[in-house]
Request: fold
Amino acid sequence: MTPTDTKPLLLDHVDQRQVTTELDAEMADRNSLVELDPDHPGFRDAEYRARRNEIARIAMSYQPGSDIPFAPYTTEEHGVWRTIWEALRPAHQTHACAEYLDCLDRLAFATDRIPQLSEVSRKVEAISGFRLEPVAGLVEPRVFLESLANGVFLCTQYIRHHSTPLYTPEPDVAHEIIGHAVTLASTRFAELNRLFGEAVRRTRSTEELERLARVYWFTIEFGVLREGGAVKAYGTGLLSSAGELEEMHQATLRPLDLEAASVLDYDPTHYQAVLFCAESFEEMYSRLRKFIRQ
Ligand SMILES: [Fe+2]
Reply:
């Protein structure tokens, strides 16, 4: 039985991105940068772990504002990217909202190889002013969300293990690019992300931060809206996973109530049981904008 039989196809979430504030300690032993759980698909693959460490070192040596260094990917890993796209292309046509499909056209990156973060970042920045910056893997929610206020999206640069092309237990470059970077090629999505960052910066307690992180989760990561009578995805966690897109119609849909979303706990280890559905893109944009500017 493969992990895709038993687990959701994508787990990513701001609250699963830990660390990086104690970078110096982390860097003490660069050969053990990447700590994979024993049940991680790449745990027993020494070559994969070595490459993950190499890519992590790129992020750790990265100087904000400079060009993002080239990440080495293998032929096998480019194949993972192609497999992801083969599953997503039809799912996007059926389940993605129009704003997302427009963004995909705008970025027009290759689907037969993993694009470098640097090339995607340049395109996104030209459209919305947002930049991508590499991180080794796991970032504290406050660090991740506050960086949005500066128009910076912190991106992992490694790709999931080739044995499970449609499953990853952590955010990888496929989720970052196909989910987040694409939506950041929309000035309206970019504005919402930036406003989230500013709102998080204003928070003074863990409770306030958690409230905003939940709203981010139920909108930017897992939001859906109605378009032409159908329910379409605008959330990046949905849009970067064919499995999530297929499964989203099984969820209980609730009207877009951001107060309710701010106190609703979620389980990041399963397909989402509850999704908040806006009546239109405009409703989502205006209500979310108002809520996070309060
Ligand atoms: Fe995400």
Residues 22 and 139 are 10 Å apart (CA to CA).
